[in-house]
């Protein structure tokens, strides 16, 4: 009996371990959901996509999150110094730009032969803002290390923060181990994730004030009396460069033998605000590929407001709604909502799918615009009192199409659900194991002998 209960305890422990592993595949499912969206570009009436040298690339429209181009978008790639985009983002999010950073000996010792640096010394002091210039323009590795120490105390803790922030931003295939991008087999990301990360940077004024600057002069410090001139390594920002573009407002370069040539570029023209990512290109081809993608986006796409689309937009807005209760509601479109429109299509070619969900901020629902199932943006519906010219909708609970962002939210909810199931299962199994342990002690040979001796003494006393 004792041996049987011991074996049963081991089996229950194995079940706990299996439940733990069952919670892990949720992240992979999220990546698959994103892939299913990115691979569903329309076949008909869609602008012909350019051929690239780079092994992976994306174009993301910043305001809508719509991907205009995707090549191996979620495939693992080594990011090289484009890693410093995340390092800089965390620095401006967690520090004041006037905070003083003291360069440690560890930061200096972290430099490897041939890595980029600006010649700082141990004990030298710079402000966070000065460090940001050294990080994003000449791509100094000792500065990346120093900022990691400033934010988290050490590189290991900073890498954990990098990965947590990546998950918050909706990244699906990213794992960082260091703040500079020096090669490590476990340090990787993908084109889709880098676009998501830089999208957050584009909304941070402190980050962009530095990143958009082509040149900077670092003044004398406590240990160096000479100034240090710096220039961005992103040649599309530098006037006089053959790759210069007036539409490029920021970005970051990266290069290692393992990563190839990597380039992240932020650009804006007319109504279109985009991030272009090219990874693992050949020497100098990253600029040619980026220019192809900039030309492709600016020539064939624009952002339009559904609220300005006239009768076509209003007709599409009303038609998908079906009433279960017969109750009428009056909505108007949020004027800031945007939809990406290819030059091969008219707004009336898009399909609008509606969902109704009343919220405290006045949002009553959304219209998701798609073409052949591919999401091109949303319009937010706001509840209002009915006035002439407004749209009248019937309430419904129709399920809307889920683009990549909503797929990520579903994946996050699935992870939380599985964690709760894991905790519940573990508690149940622990209680069962405790019961089995107590039974095993009760039926153990030693306890049986003790009971027999007590019974024998009781008979003798009687």
UniProtKB/TrEMBL annotation:
- Gene Ontology terms describing biological process: cell wall organization; peptidoglycan biosynthetic process; proteolysis; regulation of cell shape
Could you list this entry's UniProt keywords, alphabetically sorted: Carboxypeptidase, Cell shape, Cell wall biogenesis/degradation, Hydrolase, Membrane, Peptidoglycan synthesis, Protease, Signal, Transmembrane, Transmembrane helix
Q: Which Pfam families match?
A: Peptidase_S11
Boundaries of each Peptidase S11 D-alanyl-D-alanine carboxypeptidase A N-terminal domain copy?
A: 47-280
Coiled coil start-end? none
Q: Tell me which residues bind substrate.
A: 252
**GO MF annotations, alphabetized:** serine-type D-Ala-D-Ala carboxypeptidase activity
What protein does this entry describe?
Answer: D-alanyl-D-alanine carboxypeptidase
**Per the UniProt entry, what species is this protein from, by scientific name?**
Cuneatibacter caecimuris
